[in-house]
Amino acid sequence: MKAYLTRRYWFSSSHRLHTEEFDAERNREIYGKCNNPHGHGHNYALEVTVSGEVDARTGMVCNLVDLDGCVRSEVLERFDHQNLNCMKEFEGVVPTTESLAEVIFKIMKRSFHSAHLERVRLEETVNNSFEYAEAESFRP
Amino acid sequence: MVYLTRKCEFSAAHYYHNPEFTAEENRRIFGKCSNLNGHGHNYTLEVTVKGEIDPRTGFVIDLKKLKDILNAEVMDAMDHRHLNKEVPEFARAIPTTENIAIAIWQRLEGKLNVAKLHRVRLYEMHDLYVDYYGE
């Protein structure tokens, strides 16, 4: 029997939305106050959803200790209390929460192998959330 | 097609232990959940059903009937109970959040005659939940 497990985590980072593709005025137009030259920050809430058959011996899709350990070492320790614009993951990429969700999904995809990675969901504020999933496996 | 979700909360005790594992394996795999004296959680259950809207009533399902089914199958059976000792499904299966979600699906599935069960979502805590779609 297949179950989907979702775990929630928190980290805080700063960013500035700006692209060299456009001039200063156009950047302000597109990104509004997110284009403030000195940047700003968020408390991000991260949800990671994994799926798999429930192991009859343990009753688990995967051991939460493994998932927590992987998210902590690969995602939280990397991004927490950092400026996203200064990180190699965002060289040439505007660190919108859409991009951050995609980056985190790809990091998890290559680091976590105890269950199938289904989805990464990021809440930037209580009003905005973004999800990234591989189209063929996504389940709303 | 419309999806309707009803929420309820229950509180229960459990522990994780597989008699086929050694004491050391139980401790290593299940961590502090393996304490045989048990511990407890406030679970939040979300049951989602789907169906066409009945043009005479405007309902996908009569919420009162859904509530009665949830009360009989989940709340009466699991609220303020010890899952390992009082819920028959967990006489053998380990009452992980995954297995509780599956047990709730199996209890509800045959009882809904109008709408179709779509998803059982069970929160063990605010930072952990399991979805089961009957697969």
What does this molecule look like?
The complex is a heterodimer of chains A (140) and B (135). Chain A contains three helices and five strands; from the N terminus they run βαβαβαββ. Chain A has 140 residues and is α+β, with helices and mostly antiparallel strands. Chain A has a single domain, classed as 6-pyruvoyl tetrahydropterin synthase/QueD (Tetrahydropterin Synthase, Chain A, 2-Layer Sandwich), CATH 3.30.479.10. Chain A has a five-stranded mixed beta sheet. In chain A, strand 4 and strand 5 form a beta hairpin. Chain B has 135 residues and is α+β, with helices and mostly antiparallel strands. Chain B has a single domain, classed as Tetrahydropterin Synthase, Chain A (2-Layer Sandwich), CATH 3.30.479.10. Helices cover 30% and strands 32% of the residues of chain B. Chain B contains four helices and five strands; from the N terminus they run βαβαβααββ. Chain B has a five-stranded mixed beta sheet. In chain B, a hairpin with a 2-residue loop joins strand 4 and strand 5. The longest helix of chain B has 16 residues, at 63-78. Chain B starts with a strand and ends with a strand. The model of chain B has no long low-confidence stretch (mean pLDDT 95). Classes of the chains: A alpha+beta (140), B alpha+beta (135). At the A-B interface, strand 1 of A face helix 4 and strand 5 of B. Strand 1 of chain A pairs antiparallel with strand 5 (128-132) of chain B, so a sheet runs across the interface.
